[in-house]
Design brief:
The complex is a heterodimer of chains A (about 375) and B (about 400). Chain A is an alpha/beta fold and about 375 residues long. Chain A contains 14 helices and twelve strands. Chain A has helices spanning about 15-25, 35-55, 70-85, 100-110, 130-135, 155-165, 185-190, 230, 240-255, 255-275, 305-315, 335-340, 345, 360-380, and strands at about 1-5, 65, 90-95, 115-120, 140-145, 170-175, 195-200, 210-215, 280-285, 295-300, 315-320, 350-355. Chain A has a seven-stranded mixed β-sheet with strand order 2-8-7-6-5-3-4, sandwiched between helices. In chain A, strands 9-10-12 form a three-stranded antiparallel β-sheet. A two-stranded parallel ribbon of chain A has the order 1-11. With about 400 residues, chain B is of the alpha/beta class. In chain B, about 40% of the residues lie in helices and about 20% in strands. Chain B has helices at about 20-35, 60-65, 85-100, 120-135, 190-200, 215-230, 245-255, 260-280, 300-305, 320-330, 335, 360-365, 370-380, 400-405; strands spanning about 5-10, 40-45, 50-55, 70-80, 105-110, 140, 150-155, 160, 165-170, 180-185, 205-210, 235-245, 285, 310-315, 385. Classes of the chains: A alpha/beta (about 375), B alpha/beta (about 400). The interface of A and B includes residues 23, 44 and 46 of A.
Chain lengths: ~375, ~400
């Protein structure tokens, strides 16, 4: 089996699963309990938090555990909207965000908030000029993804940080669900960002766990109110087995990060360089530094995305039509649509998404299968 | 940029004529203490300032530690270069470029210790300044209040360039202000009071009263961990735990309810005073702030203070709770302090303690208990631990957990 759908989800690392199991069996107390089982769980919770904070170069009180990327995105957006509603109701984001951002913005629009979606160029990237022009007196939040989940564009998040230094009261959120562990930590953990969303299952932690970074001193309203966990900002008994497992997954992910990112870039290049010369192939993800090393999105003219996915599946190779979240709805890729690609390309796009566990040999096997399928499809169309 | 040393400028001690030497020596010692786990670092105290030679250690982390050390006015990371002026030009240019934004002005400020150096300060300012003007579009030189200042020092062993100036913690080096004890409960106030005592150069020994089983082992661990946290500002701290159960039980049994709290506090201060004298300390610090709770009215303070003639120092006396919390957050004790373990100040508190206890009545009710015997017993039972900066006490499983994570 060749699994090239790592942007949809990743397989839980056996060592991470081992931590999950051990914590479930041995340290099952509620961190809020006063007795020593609770105490032990509380200490493990804090140590997990500290490990993640240390690895990212931030403070432990800046890390808040969530159920994953969707919750993180919802929390930062709605939490900011509630917290800062007295100061303004204008939110700036991009036209190519994940639905967790886009749909949340649409919901906020219905509640009276005003949302500006920054357009993107042919590479799926926003322009800093557009961002500057969009900022208003009543802007309360700018939310930009680090890496586009469909085609892998790295957004100019560091340049945006520079712009936003002149607007210290605007919350700056980066959705880094596809960005962590891909060699661009320096861009994400910049000195202006206020909030960052992370999701565990994208880097070999279990499902249902994630975290956000919140710069100390920045305020957002909680979405989950209740028992007061997570500094009263995210109530609910902590999912300790998953939190500890995720702390381990972050450690593994960020060990030798650059080398692993390079390996993924090499695998991407192997496929990119092979398929780029076929007449009917359009590649949306460029093979250059301002694209993530792990995402390759392309289409074969006249063949529907689903058809390509299933054809590869017959060869035990697993890829997806752009975003996994919307792939079952037969909607054209939102990112490609925003890039104003023709509809036939938007519906025929597929995404190869890599991970450090993939190999060059797998890419070569992919290329062989690609040749066969390309010939077959060419005869049919 | 790879910095080679951190320059440390002294604070108030520059003004203290004859004690200067001791101050510098003590500061050097304190700095070595907080940097003890950076093995390659060399700390070099001199008359006018102190140099921390990094030898490849990460300057950010070193500055983070130094920023909390009392007696430091400002810090600057500096780069050591050989005496080739062309090399200095390149580095100075890079330093300017790192900070430059359109419209900014700059200045080169040269000090020449090596009087044999072929270029004088004027030549050096001119050469470096000219090079920067030629290579940074639109930058202007300005002598008064420039946006960017590049300091150049020509020393015997090389050229040192620095630009950034980081504010230090101020105050006096811990240890130069004598030695005192501190009554640490585990709440928000006492660690802040400790911090402020240290800021004036005082070396503190912690006194913590604990009353098992009314107070939990975690409460004791929490007090120790708070000590380890404030130790980051002045080095190892002696932690003295005093068994207090018997005193509290006796007072509860024998003394009228309204005077429970006052007499408990008198016993605490009495014991603390005796420990203070035994250890040749010169005073007792507390985290009391006027008017906060029943025990902290002026009348209470008088009734409690009655048991000792040692100075009882209260750095928080006129601070608001919000101010205290702000400092607690800054020094990293707040999150620990609010952990919900009962300490011996909160157990056996009567529903309505006297906020204005009468001194004569207090003295009278105290005769109901055997003060000397109880005091002696408590002092005989003390246990002293040496606590290192950042040591962990609450999480006993740290190593086991590290395996797991």
């Amino acid at each position: 089996m060749i699994y090239f759908d790592n942007s949809a989800t990743t397989k839980v690392d056996p060592a991470v699963l081992d931590t999950y199991n051990q914590v479930s069996e041995r340290i099952w107390g509620n961190p809020s309990s006063l007795h020593r089982f609770g105490e032990e769980a509380f200490n493990l919770l804090n140590q997990s938090r500290k490990q993640i904070a240390d690895l990212l170069g931030v403070q432990p009180n800046e890390i808040f555990f969530t159920s994953g990327g969707t919750e993180g995105d919802n929390w930062v957006l709605k939490g900011t909207a509630i917290e800062k509603r007295k100061f303004g109701k204008h939110i700036i984001t991009t036209a190519v965000e994940h639905p967790a951002i886009h749909e949340t913005c649409e919901q906020l629009k219905k509640l009276g908030y005003d949302v500006t979606y920054l357009p993107v160029d042919k590479e799926g990237r926003i322009s800093i000029e557009d961002l500057k022009n969009a900022i208003r007196k009543d802007t309360i939040l700018v939310s930009i993804m680090a890496v586009n989940n469909e085609i892998g564009t790295i957004q100019p998040i560091k340049e945006a940080a520079e712009v936003l230094k002149d607007y210290p009261n605007v919350h700056y959120h980066i959705d880094a669900v596809q960005g962590i562990g891909k060699g661009i930590g320096e861009l994400i953990m910049n000195d202006r960002v206020d909030f960052i969303t992370f999701s565990g299952h994208k880097f070999h932690a279990p499902r249902g766990i994630g975290f956000i970074y919140k710069r100390a001193g920045k305020k957002i309203a909680p979405l989950m109110t209740g028992g007061g966990q997570e500094h009263n900002l995210r109530s609910g008994t902590e999912n300790l087995p998953a939190i500890a497992a995720m702390a381990k997954a972050v450690r593994i992910l960020l060990t030798n990060e650059q080398a692993k990112a390079q390996k993924q870039a090499d695998i991407k290049s192997t496929i990119y360089n092979h398929i780029k010369d076929f007449d009917k192939v359009t590649i949306f993800s460029k093979n250059q530094a301002n694209f993530a090393p792990h995402i390759l999105c392309f289409s074969i003219l006249g063949v529907r995305g689903e058809t390509i996915v299933h054809a590869f599946e017959d060869h035990d190779i697993y890829i997806s039509t752009t975003s996994a979240c919307s792939s079952k709805d037969h909607v054209p890729s939102a990112t490609l649509t925003a890039m104003q690609e023709p509809t036939e390309l938007c519906t025929s796009a597929v995404r190869v998404s890599l991970d450090a566990n993939n190999t060059i040999e797998e890419a070569e096997e992919f290329n062989r299968v690609f040749d066969q399928l390309y010939q077959k499809f060419s005869k049919l169309s | 940029m790879q910095y080679s040393e951190i320059m440390v400028r002294y604070g108030e001690l520059s003004t203290k004529g004859k004690n200067r030497k001791d101050f510098i020596k003590q500061l050097g010692k304190n700095i070595r203490h907080v940097l003890h786990d950076f093995h390659d670092i060399h700390v070099n105290p001199q008359q006018d300032r102190l140099h921390v030679d990094l030898h490849g250690e990460d300057y950010d982390k070193v500055i983070e530690r130094l920023a909390g050390v009392f007696g430091i006015e400002t810090l600057s990371p500096a780069i050591k270069l050989d005496k080739d002026i062309d090399n200095a030009k390149q580095v100075a240019l890079q330093m300017v470029k790192d900070q430059y934004q359109p419209g900014m002005t700059f200045k080169i400020n040269t000090i020449r210790q090596d009087k044999q150096y072929p270029l004088d300060t004027y030549d050096i300012n001119d050469k470096l300044g000219g090079y920067i003007i030629d290579n940074v579009d639109g930058i202007k030189a300005q002598m008064k209040h420039p946006d960017i200042e590049i300091r150049v020092e020509i020393r015997m062993n090389g050229i040192f360039l620095s630009s950034e100036t980081i504010k230090g913690a101020g105050g006096l080096p811990v240890g130069t202000g004598g030695r005192a004890t501190m009554m640490l409960s585990g709440g928000i106030d006492s660690p802040v009071a400790t911090y402020l005592a240290m800021k004036r150069g005082v070396k503190v020994d912690m006194i913590h009263f604990f009353s098992p089983p009314y107070t939990s082992p975690q409460a004791l661990a929490k007090a120790k961990e708070l000590t380890a946290q404030v130790a980051k500002f002045g080095g190892n701290i002696q932690f003295i735990e005093v068994p207090f159960t018997e005193v509290q039980e006796t007072v509860k049994e024998k003394v009228p309810e309204g005077y429970l709290m006052t007499i408990q506090r008198r016993m605490m201060l009495r014991i603390a005073s005796a420990i203070t004298r035994n250890r040749h300390c010169k005073g007792v610090f507390t985290g009391e702030s006027l008017g906060q709770v029943a025990s902290q009215t002026l009348e209470s303070m008088m009734a409690i203070n009655d048991v000792t003639n040692l100075p009882v120092l209260r750095p928080l006396v006129s601070m608001d709770k919000t101010e205290i919390i702000r400092i607690a957050e800054k020094i990293g004790t707040y999150d620990l302090s609010i952990m919900p373990f009962e300490d011996c100040c909160t157990i056996f508190t009567p529903p309505s303690p006297k906020t204005k206890p009468d001194l004569e009545k207090t003295r009278h009710y105290e005769t109901y208990i055997d003060v000397d015997a109880l005091t002696k017993k408590a002092i005989d039972g003390i246990k002293v631990t040496d606590i290192k900066p950042g040591e962990e006490f609450l999480n006993q499983n740290q190593d086991v957990f590290s395996e797991l994570l």
